[in-house]
Amino acid sequence: DIAWWAGVVCDKDGVVLKLLANGTKSDTEEVPAGGFAIAIHSGSGRMTALEKIKVGQIVTVHNVLIDAMRGFGGTAALKDAFITYADAPTAFEIEINVNEKEILTDGTKDVSGNWGSGAGEDNVLLIKNTQCKELPMNVTVKYDLGETKSIESVSMYLYHCANVMIGYPEGKAKISVSTDGTTYTSVGEFDFAAAELATDKFGTVENKFAFDAVDARYIKVEFAAGSNEAILGKTPAGGKIYWEFVSMTEFEVGVVKEDPIAKGDITGDGNIDAFDYQMLKAYVLRSYTEATADQIARMDLNGDESIDAFDYQMLKCVVLGTYQFD
């Protein structure tokens, strides 16, 4: 009962190859091996879904009873069936959690040997593009510091060896940070350090991305690995036109170092003077009881973990210029 119909032809992966309109029951269409076609009666307003589908999108058919299809049992086979469709992916997406990869925080950075001779999966993390014949790869690297800290850089040590399809990122590294793991804020986009890519070259390149200090617990780095044509030509082995791997030996976060406690500068104004001496003496005599933990740490001049007369006598000598701290 399909005198007039419309439909789509898809390959084995569900990618739409052709849109069919105004077909009749005498028309024929060739379907590639492993592929399929979907036809819908063109009357009664039932074309709405297919009219929105475009060539190149991916169609998925759900809840078809294959056994009921035999002997033209189409009505039963399609009773609960439906289709979904979506744009085809433009890249293979992969996420790396540094906290789950001990190899990225073991201190081994500069791996310089050829693959299989000094470099291997015991000291290099391979990040694989399983669709390197069709798609480039987008990599997201995430790291949890465990607590919020002030950070000022992120470093990635990237190993390359074109002979075994281990390539190098292209474009820029996009870095963002978060204190809650949900809302991320960009700290910038950064160029990768130059790598000597060639079929007889291999090694590790340090990429240190520095930025203004920012509070963060969670760090996210995003980058892409694309075509290898410039190195391997237009017909690389196995038809792998995109790098099959990128790899990393180490991931580091630069934490801002706290300023050392300035012994004697109890007021925190950058000077050691009579005001500091009077405050310390008052604390020892119990007439000043509101000292902060930071102030108390600055009062312990001799480092014996006790604030007493020895400390304020030492500070008095510093103020008078008869003693200097080492």
Explain what this protein looks like in three dimensions.
It is built from seven helices and 14 strands. By secondary structure, it is mostly beta strands. The strands form four sheets. Strands 6, 9, 10, 11, 12, 13 and 14 form a seven-stranded mixed sheet that branches. A three-stranded antiparallel sheet has the order 2-1-3, with no helix packed on it. Strands 4-5 form a two-stranded antiparallel ribbon. Helix 5 packs antiparallel against helix 7. The longest helix is centred in the last third of the chain and has 12 residues. The chain is elongated. The protein starts with a strand and ends in a 6-residue tail after the last helix. The mean pLDDT is 90.
Supply the key terms.
single chain, 326 residues, mainly beta, seven-stranded mixed beta sheet, three-stranded antiparallel beta sheet, 14 strands, 37% strand, elongated
Structure, briefly:
The protein has seven helices and 14 strands. With 326 residues, the protein is mainly beta.
SSE topology:
Blueprint: E1 4-10, E2 16-24, E3 36-41, H1 48-52, E4 58-62, H2 66-69, H3 74-77, E5 82-86, E6 92-97, E7 114-115, E8 118-119, E9 125-128, E10 137-161, E11 170-178, E12 185-191, E13 202-225, H4 229-232, E14 245-255, H5 274-284, H6 293-299, H7 309-320
Parallel strand pairs: 6-10, 7-8
Antiparallel strand pairs: 1-2, 1-3, 4-5, 9-14, 10-13, 10-14, 11-12, 11-13
